[in-house]
Amino acid sequence: MNFSSIRIITADIKQLVPFYENVTGTPFKWYTDDFAELRTPLGTLAIGSTRTLALFGGEEIAAAASNRSVIIEFQVADVDSTYQQLTGILGEKVVQKPTTMPWGNRSLLFRDTDGNLVNFFTPVTQEAKERTGAKI
């Protein structure tokens, strides 16, 4: 089995997709007005509108902007530099400025436009670099 993707369900796909395009510097591929993806070599971030829930059985399946348990993580080459580049975009969405974690990653934690937690991180210890296969 291979992990493939995470999908965010949103009530405002026209706001959320551009937010991720801005912070990652990578365009999404739009498949329909209700579904877009950002593909990376290791996995995909998919974003679907609440209208896509009808395909899975109805709106009771998921609720937009209500995540309280998942952090979406992206490994970046230099989290401090990335933070400096994004300060104008992130503004008050920053939850924690770049901080070195006990497991060896330097992490920037912020919220997307739906309130989901996002972590941009850079492995800084040798153990973290080996664990993540730091190729960036």
Explain what this protein looks like in three dimensions.
23% of the residues lie in helices and 35% in strands. It has 136 residues and is α/β, with parallel strands linked by helices. The protein folds into two domains: 1-66, 2,3-Dihydroxybiphenyl 1,2-Dioxygenase, domain 1 (Roll); 67-136, 2,3-Dihydroxybiphenyl 1,2-Dioxygenase, domain 1 (Roll), CATH 3.10.180. A four-stranded mixed β-sheet has the order 1-4-3-2, covered by helices on one side. Strands 5-8-7-6 form a four-stranded mixed β-sheet. A hairpin with a 5-residue loop joins strand 7 and strand 8 (117-123). The two termini are 25 Å apart. The mean pLDDT is 96.
Q: What's the main sheet like?
A: 4 strands, mixed
Secondary structure tally, helices: 3
Task: Give the strand order of the largest sheet, numbering strands 1, 2, ... along the chain.
Answer: 1-4-3-2
Distance between the termini: 25 Å
**Number of structural domains:** 2
What's the CATH topology label of the largest domain?
A: 2,3-Dihydroxybiphenyl 1,2-Dioxygenase, domain 1
Percent helix, as a range, is 10-25%
What is the average per-residue confidence, as pLDDT, rounded to a whole number?
Answer: 96
How many whole angstroms does the radius of gyration measure?
16 Å
Q: Mind telling me the CATH superfamily name of the largest domain?
A: 2,3-Dihydroxybiphenyl 1,2-Dioxygenase, domain 1
Q: What are the secondary-structure elements, in order, as H or E?
A: EHEEEEHEEEH
Uncertain segments? none
| SS-derived structural category | alpha/beta
Supply the CATH class of the largest domain. Alpha Beta
* Oligomer kind: single chain
